[in-house]
Design brief:
Blueprint lengths: L2 H7 L3 E4 L22 E7 L15 H22 L26 E7 L4 E8 L6 E5 L16 E2 L5 H4 L5 E5 L2 E7 L5 E12 L5 E11 L10 E4 L7 H4 L1 H4 L2 E5 L7 E6 L9 E4 L1 E2 L7 E3 L1 E6 L2 E2 L11 E3 L6 E3 L1 H13 L5 E3 L8 E3 L5 E4 L2 E5 L2 E4 L6 E2 L2 E2 L1 E3 L8 E3 L8 E5 L4 E5 L4
Parallel strand pairs: 4-11, 5-10, 19-29, 20-28
Antiparallel strand pairs: 1-23, 2-3, 2-13, 3-4, 3-9, 5-11, 6-9, 7-8, 8-9, 9-10, 12-13, 12-30, 14-31, 15-16, 16-19, 17-18, 17-24, 21-22, 24-25, 26-27, 30-31
Length: 435
């Protein structure tokens, strides 16, 4: 680390206790995407005043953390499955943790797009850990549904189409000569429907012809604020892969610091990594959906923890759908101990679900927390103060999976950064203060 960086890291960070809680008014702060040539959509938290359809049923922190643990297990077990099904995992362990119709609350961020002709506005959850995008086309409850029969530009894929074969394990055979897809959930239900294409409207001036997506047709209970999911993973079906010819193999996003502010999602990278600190991107041959990085160490108040390189040898996944970062137990223990050493002025509190480094801030208007930096290969990322605590606890946890699977960089730690995922250049970039 440079001497300037070390000096900056010696400054304590002050966090208003109120910022740890939901706010009632959307602050609409200035956001600044790095690219002006790409297609940029406003991104907001699924819950709270900035949501396109604010929810009245926000989960509790306990429910949220329970879902997050399931999500982390899902991500990490995908790698175990790719390693010849190691560790005695059952098939149900390798599916998405829960239905969007009940409580996939770990997927927190949404964008608003249009689908079809005439355009039907859709609020879609974004997920870098999914490839197949889909929207509800028939259901028994709620939301604005897309009706393919009313769109003049919609066309289902035939069972013999290359796009249907490309689904692989997500393919679900044929129905009335139309290609079917399936996404399985851990409790045994399925997200199924027809796989087809239509016009996707990203902004007033940016559209995507023949956008491939699933048209979910079931009678399940719909989520209260969303119309579907936008897959941003590294597989062939994702929005990123489908638009690579137009915007290049790069996209970026910025998760806002709280749910009363907004961020953005941008397809394309006009200036490459200019203005970013960058680290090489890691890809996983057995699980191409995910984007990875090499975490080498962690610093607390400018002091490196000295974690042995072998601890992070399995790499880390950059994941938008996991809230809390998961570190190997050795790394987490070192981080927790160093963090506690700088928080002795505050009363310790009992663990909250998966979080065990917690504090009692009752009666305080603000708290001062030590700085934390993630040290990647070639890049030091100084976390925003809003990326350190959640629910008055350190927003990290230890992994619970065996060796051989990556750790996870969650969305809390990514707050306020423009995170650039440039597949073409094989680079992951971080630009601070973008939203």
């Amino acid at each position: 680390m440079s001497s300037v960086t070390q000096i900056l890291l010696l400054l304590l960070l002050t966090l208003a206790v109120g910022s740890l809680k939901a706010e009632a008014v959307c602050g609409q702060p200035q956001v600044s995407p790095s690219s002006s040539n790409g297609a940029t959509a406003r991104l907001s938290h699924r819950y709270g005043p900035c949501s396109p359809a604010p929810s009245t049923e926000e989960p509790t922190i306990t429910e949220l953390l329970r879902s997050d643990q399931l999500r982390a297990n899902y991500v990490q077990r995908k790698f175990s499955a790719g390693n010849n099904g190691a560790n005695g995992l059952q098939p149900s362990d390798l599916t998405v943790p829960t239905t969007l119709g009940s409580a996939l609350d770990t997927l927190q961020y949404v964008i608003t797009v249009g689908i079809g002709s005439p355009v039907v506005t859709q609020t879609m959850i974004v997920d870098t850990g999914s490839d197949v995008s889909w929207v509800y086309c028939r259901s028994s409850a709620g939301s604005t549904l897309f009706d393919p029969s009313k769109s003049t530009t919609y066309a289902p894929f035939s069972c013999s189409a290359a796009e249907c074969a490309q689904l692989g394990t997500r393919g679900n055979g044929c129905s009335n000569s139309e290609c079917q897809y399936v996404v399985e959930y851990v409790e045994g239900s399925n997200n199924t429907g027809t796989y087809g294409a239509d016009t996707l409207t990203l902004t007033d001036s940016e559209t995507v012809d023949n956008f491939q997506f699933g048209c979910r047709q079931d009678e399940g209970v719909m989520p209260d604020t969303t119309d579907g999911l936008m897959g941003l993973g590294g597989g062939a079906q994702s929005l990123v892969s489908q638009t690579a010819a137009t915007y290049g193999e790069a996209f970026s996003y910025c998760f806002p610091p709280t749910n009363n502010s907004t961020g953005f999602l941008t397809l394309g990278a006009e200036d490459g990594t200019s203005g970013f600190v960058s680290t090489p991107m890691v890809r996983f041959a057995n699980v191409p959906t995910f984007y990875g990085v090499l975490l080498q160490d962690i610093a607390v108040e400018g002091t490196l923890l000295g974690i042995p390189p072998s601890v992070f040898s399995d790499r880390s996944v950059m994941n938008s759908g996991t809230i809390i970062s998961r570190l190997p137990p050795v790394a987490y223990a070192a981080l927790s101990a160093a963090f506690k050493a700088h928080m002795t002025r505050y009363t310790p509190a009992p663990p909250r679900s998966i979080l065990d480094t917690c504090f009692d801030f009752t009666g305080l208007d603000s708290v001062t927390v030590p700085s934390i930096s993630l040290v990647f290969e070639g890049a030091v990322v100084d976390l925003d103060v809003n990326g350190i605590l959640i629910a008055s606890c350190l927003a990290f946890a230890a992994t619970t999976t065996p060796d051989g699977v990556p750790s996870i960089i969650g969305n809390v730690q990514q707050r306020t950064f423009e995170v650039l995922l440039d597949v073409g250049q094989s680079v992951v970039g971080f630009r601070s203060g973008a939203c």
